[in-house]
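Below is a concrete protein record.
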Amino acid sequence: MRVLGVDPGLTRCGVGVVEGVAGRPLTMLGVGVVRTPADADLSHRLVAIEQGMEEWLDEHRPEFVAVERVFSQHNVRTVMGTAQASAVAMLCAARRGIPVALHTPSEVKAAVTGSGRADKAQVGAMVTRLLRLSAPPKPADAADALALAICHIWRAPAQNRLQQAVARHTLNATKGRTA
């Protein structure tokens, strides 16, 4: 499975591509940051993020895109920018028919470090170890994007089985009512 992880942000949008399957060693295929100037108009910043996402999708051809779920922060301006960058990433994937998964920050931290309250240094250290890198990716947004991809690779099989079980249960329940 090849996953593009996206840590959304208006100034720095972390991106990272990881390939592998749960229970096997994972491989980093690329990591970076799509940057936009803080003093540019919002519309131009969103176009720059779109162009950056399209380049990553063209180059790496992921099967899935994993995006950090936007959660409420104290700074409304920050959360709005994060949500806008997140929407651009989801739009780019949807346009190509690539499934998008949203993962909360605590879900990603728990998957990668074992603790949903891990700090950025712990996440970076585990990403470095899991991908057998010589140093943690910089900035932290890049490491977070890789963590999102890792989280999705590890959690997708269980999530898929759960969705299939729910679908079967719903189908069986519907058949039982019509009989």
Helices lie at 42-60, 76-95, 105-113, 120-130, 140-178. The chain has a mean pLDDT of 92. The two ends are 40 Å apart (CA to CA). The beta strands are 2-7, 12-19, 27-35, 64-68, 100-103.
